[in-house]
Amino acid sequence: STGIITLDPGYKNTGSCESAITYLDGEKGILRYRGYKIEDLAEKADFLEVAYLLIFGELPTKEQLNKFHNDIKEHLEVDEDIKKIVDSFPRTAHPMGVLSSLTSALTAFNPSVVDINSEEDMYNAVVKIMGKFPVLAAWTLRRRNSKPYDYGDSELGYVENILCLMFKKPNEKYKINPKVVDALDKLLILHADHEQNCSTSTVRIVGSSHAGLFASLSAGVSALWGPLHGGANQAVIEMLESIKQDGGDTAKYMEKAKDKEDPFRLMGFGHRVYKNFDPRAKIIKKSADDVLADLGVNDPVLTIAKSLEKQALEDDYFVKRKLYPNVDFYSGIIYRALGIPTEMFTVMFALGRLPGWIAQWREMRLKQEPIGRPRQIYVGENQREFVSLDKR
Ligand code: SDX
C-alpha cells in the first residue's frame, strides 16, 4: 500500500501493478511524472529531459543530458535492408500500421535487445530505440510522399530533428521556426506517459513474457492506433472537418452525440480515469491559441472545437457523465498548424509516448515481475454432454 491505493496482495500481475513513474488523480485532474507536476515540466523542461526523467527516475544534469542525446545520435542509423521493408508497403498504408511493423522488424536486425540482463544492456537498448524510432516514424511519411529516406541532421535537437526527418528536402539545410519546435516539444512532453493506459499496459504485459523491448513497443504502437485511444487525435480533426463541411452546425452534432441510436461520439471527449478536466487538455488548448496566433494561422476548426466544448460543459448529458475534453481534443489542431498531415497525428502521439512505454517496460523488467495473466469471471455454459454431428 502506498497510502494512495492498496492493491490486493493476490493481484500478482493480473494487469494491475505498482508503479513509481506516473501519478494521476482523475477526480482532481492531477498528473505528475516521477513526482513533478505536468504543468511545470511542460513549461520548464524539454522533451529529452522528461524522457530521461521518466526512464531513469531523476531529472538529468547537463552532462547526463548531453551524454544521453549524444548516445542517442550514435544510434540513429538502421540497417539499410529496413528501407526495403518500408518500400514493400503500399503508399496508402496507414503510418501506424507501418510503424508497428518496422518497430517489430528492429528486433530482427538488433537481436541484442531481446534479452536485457544488466543496466548497461538496458541503457543501450534505450538509446537505440530513442534514436531509431523517430527515423522509422518519419520514414512512414516519406514513403507516402515518395521522398528519400535519410537521417535528418545530427546537429539539430532531438525534437527539431523529428521535424527535419519528416520534412527536410534533399540538399537543403533544414531550418524551422523555433516556435514550431517549442510547440511540438511541449506536445510530446504532455503525451510522454499516462500510467496504465491501454497501450502502456500492452507494452508491460507483452514484456512480462520476456519478449524484447522492441517487440513490446511494436505491440504498444498497435494498441495506440485504435480510435478510442491514440487514434482519437486523428478522429477529432476528421470529426471537426466533417462538422465544418456540414455548415458548422455544432448543436446538431451535440444531439447526435447524445442519441443512443446514433453511433456518433464526440471524439476527444471523455476519459476512463479523468472525471474532471484532463490537465493536458487545458495546457494544449492554451498552446493551440498561442501557436496559431504566433504562426498567423486562422483555422476555422478551432472555432468549431471551442463551440463544442462550450456547449458540452453546459449540457447535462455531458456534465452528468463527467465528459470533458481529453488530451486528443485540441492536439490535432496544433499538429495541423505545424504542417503535420492528419494521418501522422497518432504517430506523433507514439513519438511522445515512447519514453513512457520504455520507462514502464524497464520498471516491470527490473522488478522481475511475473508473466502477466489477467483473470476472468466465467459466465459461460455449465458442463454439458457432447452431441455427435448426426444428432445435431
Ligand atoms: C486517450 O487511458 C488513458 O490514459 C488514455 C489516454 C492516454 O494518455 O494514454 O489519456 C489517451 O486514449 C484519451 C481518450 C481518447 N479517446 C477518445 O476521445 C474517444 C472518445 N471517447 C470515448 O470513446 C470514451 O470517452 C473513452 C473511450 C475515452 C472512455 O470510455 P469509458 O470510460 O469506457 O466511458 P464509457 O464508454 O463507459 O461511457 C460512459 C458514458 C456512456 O453513456 P451511458 O451508457 O452511461 O449513457 O459516457 C458516454 C457513453 O455513451 N460517452 C460519450 C463519450 N464518451 C463516453 N458520449 C459521447 N461522446 C463521447 N466521447
TrEMBL record:
One of its GO terms (molecular function) is citrate synthase activity. GO terms for cellular component: cytoplasm. Keywords: Transferase, Tricarboxylic acid cycle. Pathway: Carbohydrate metabolism; tricarboxylic acid cycle; isocitrate from oxaloacetate: step 1/2. PROSITE patterns: CITRATE_SYNTHASE. The keyword Transferase applies. InterPro entries: Citrate_synth-like_lrg_a-sub, Citrate_synth-like_sm_a-sub, Citrate_synthase, Citrate_synthase_AS, Citrate_synthase_bac-typ, Citrate_synthase_sf, Citrate_synthase_typ-I. It catalyses: oxaloacetate + acetyl-CoA + H2O = citrate + CoA + H(+). The active site is at H271, D328. It comes from the Bacteria. SUPFAM superfamilies: Citrate synthase (SSF48256). One of its GO terms (biological process) is tricarboxylic acid cycle. Belongs to the citrate synthase family. This is Citrate synthase.
